[in-house]
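In this supplementary section we document a worked example of the pipeline. Step one takes a protein sequence of length 150 as its only input; no multiple sequence alignment statistics are reported here. Step two produces a three-dimensional model, which step three serialises into structure tokens for compact storage. The input and output of this example are shown verbatim.
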Amino acid sequence: MFNKLKRKVTIFVAAMMFASGGMMAIPAYAADFVIIMSDAYGGVSSISHKKLKNLYLRNDKEFNGVSAKPVNLAEGDALRNAFLQEVLGMNEDQLKSYWLQASLDGKGKPPKSLSSENSVIKYVSKKKGAIGYVSAAAASDAGLTSVAVE
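The serialised model returned by step three reads:
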């Protein structure tokens, strides 16, 4: 969809950087969320919408040579719903159907779900290859800085 419109899309992506004790992020769609990534990705400078979607749908298993471990917020969370719509182009029922079919086809399991933004931040900071999303406010409180992404 974004390629057809030939427009640049900006999303929030954050990289946790343990050595410097900081995190980086890039601007989101209309939604108020950011994507955070473990420092294992080496302070990525960009990620495409398509790649992010494919990582969450497990169509791609790696990013920058690192095994990706995406994580969601719990079902029913407003940020999760925004993420599903903006990034995956799905609602909760469509996502459930997708994972049911993927499971039947032997294509894997859905990303782990965590109960809170704080849990996502902690998980991403400790798990190599972790990718998650949190509110822009939580990202700001965590000291995130912007990184350009197409």
